[in-house]
């Protein structure tokens, strides 16, 4: 029997007229220039944690990529030294001396190749790499005239998503007052820092639970401040009061996280425990968590975040995108990522747009409604920086 003569449909043939209507790769699209600046911005709210008191002024590193048509892409790295070991000074140094010069002459569409070049130049340093990753997405967004979420998985939350407001370590009275304040401002989820005073933590969270309506969700974050027996005791006492507890114990103790989950039934969210895909695979294997916090400066940007979200999605683990003290530039990148995620019951932590629509250096096209962030339609990240 002969092979059937099947016409394969593989698109227009090279000699057909349609072939010549397919846009050629723009030969001229190159990164032509870059700049990098360190700005210091007063923090918009006090947020003391298990790591200590928050600074009154925080540094942000802003990278700019310019293509050969003069279009600009913005990226941000706001350091979290306790998380990544990088400071604003070290981020700026690596960007200026290694990463940004290596981009000149490259096509900004070659994303994975560019990130591989950076990894070859210097391992780790994911906050500095995050600024490059973000600037590439923003630049391509301006070239395409499309919001960045179209370069990611596409818009899965056309109605936007809710955000939570964080409250740092305060006295019981101040904590209750702040919780009531943010609920009056329209927030449906509050995040409360805990850690240094376990018995006081139980009292504070219980007091907030009594003070706010029962449909307001509370989540707590110890930033690794407890040990396993303390976490079991505290979470056991708060099991009916909170939607989850983030990073109750130090990041390396995955067996301990599993033990706390099993003993208390309280959902555990990992933050400090997961920077890379390898970290997440270990967490999944250890059955150490129910949900995952993604911070772009931990994982190295939007592309790495997509990989984390894909693995989390494959095991049914909701993702919460958190903006750690970023300006509107970095927080906007988080918004675009969050808009592409499968809807989940958990609010995202990207509240800057709801309480501070403009920053001292930034203007944003991102609109809000109460505690809800709406999908932007402006090209790129939708943020300008002066
Ligand atoms: Mg956290």
Please provide a written account of the structure.
There is one protein chain. The protein has 386 residues and is of the alpha/beta class. It has 2 domains: 31-145, Enolase-like, domain 1, CATH 3.30.390; 161-385, Alpha-Beta Barrel (TIM Barrel), CATH 3.20.20. Helices cover 35% and strands 17% of the residues. It is built from 13 helices and 15 strands. The strands form 4 sheets. The protein has a 7-stranded parallel β-sheet with strand order 5-6-7-8-9-10-11. A 3-stranded antiparallel β-sheet has the order 1-2-3. Helix 5 runs parallel beside helix 6 (198-211). The chain binds magnesium ion. Magnesium ion is lined by residues 221, 223, 246-247, 271, 293. The site of magnesium ion (MG) has 6 residues, from loops.
Give a quick account of the main beta sheet: strands, pairing sense, barrel closure. 7 strands, parallel
Structural class: alpha/beta
Strand content: 15-25%
Helix content: 25-40%
Question: Which ions, cofactors or small ligands are bound in this entry?
Answer: magnesium ion
**At CATH's second level, what is the architecture of the largest domain?**
Alpha-Beta Barrel
Gyration radius, in Å: 22 Å
- Kindly state the number of beta strands: 15
First-residue to last-residue Cα separation: 72 Å
**Can you tell me the overall shape?**
globular
Q: Can you write the helix and strand succession as a string?
A: EEEHHHHEEHEHEHEHEHEHHEHHEEEE
Number of domains: 2
Question: Looking at this structure, what is the CATH superfamily of the largest domain?
Answer: Enolase-like C-terminal domain
Average pLDDT rating: 92
Q: How many helical stretches?
A: 13
The CATH topology annotation of the largest domain reads as TIM Barrel
């Amino acid at each position: 029997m002969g092979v059937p003569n099947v016409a394969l449909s593989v698109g227009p043939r090279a000699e057909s007229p349609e072939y010549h209507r397919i846009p050629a790769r723009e030969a001229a699209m190159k990164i032509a220039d870059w700049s990098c600046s360190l700005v210091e911005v007063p923090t918009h709210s006090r947020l003391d944690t298990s790591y200590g008191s928050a600074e009154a002024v925080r540094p942000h590193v802003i990278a700019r990529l310019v293509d050969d048509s003069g279009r600009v892409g913005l990226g941000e790295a706001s350091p979290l030294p306790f998380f990544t070991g990088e400071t604003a000074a070290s981020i700026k140094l690596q960007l200026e001396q290694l990463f940004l010069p290596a981009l000149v002459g490259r096509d900004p569409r070659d994303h994975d190749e560019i990130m591989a070049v950076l990894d070859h130049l210097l391992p780790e340093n994911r906050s500095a790499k995050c600024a490059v990753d973000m600037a590439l997405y923003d630049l391509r967004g301006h070239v395409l005239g499309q919001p960045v979420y179209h370069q990611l998985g596409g818009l899965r939350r056309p109605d936007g998503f809710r955000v939570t407001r964080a409250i740092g370590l305060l006295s019981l009275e101040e904590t209750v007052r702040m919780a009531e304040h943010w609920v009056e401002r329209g927030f449906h989820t509050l995040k409360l820092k805990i850690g240094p005073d376990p018995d006081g933590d139980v009292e504070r969270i219980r007091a907030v639970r009594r003070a706010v309506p029962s449909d307001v969700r509370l989540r707590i974050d110890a930033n690794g401040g407890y040990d396993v027996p303390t976490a079991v005791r505290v979470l056991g006492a708060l099991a009916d009061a909170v939607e989850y507890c983030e990073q109750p114990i130090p990041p390396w103790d995955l067996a301990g996280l599993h033990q706390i989950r099993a003993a208390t039934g309280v959902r555990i969210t990992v933050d400090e425990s997961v920077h890379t895909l390898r970290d997440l695979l270990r967490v999944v294997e250890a059955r150490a968590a129910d949900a995952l916090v993604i911070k772009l400066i931990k994982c190295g940007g939007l592309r790495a975040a997509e990989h984390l979200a894909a693995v989390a999605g494959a095991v049914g683990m909701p993702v919460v995108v958190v903006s750690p003290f970023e300006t509107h530039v970095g927080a906007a990148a988080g918004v675009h990522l969050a808009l592409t995620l499968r809807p989940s019951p958990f609010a995202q932590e990207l509240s800057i747009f709801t309480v501070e629509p403009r920053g001292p250096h930034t203007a944003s096209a991102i609109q809000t409604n109460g505690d809800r962030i709406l999908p932007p339609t402006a090209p790129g990240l939708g943020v300008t920086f002066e």
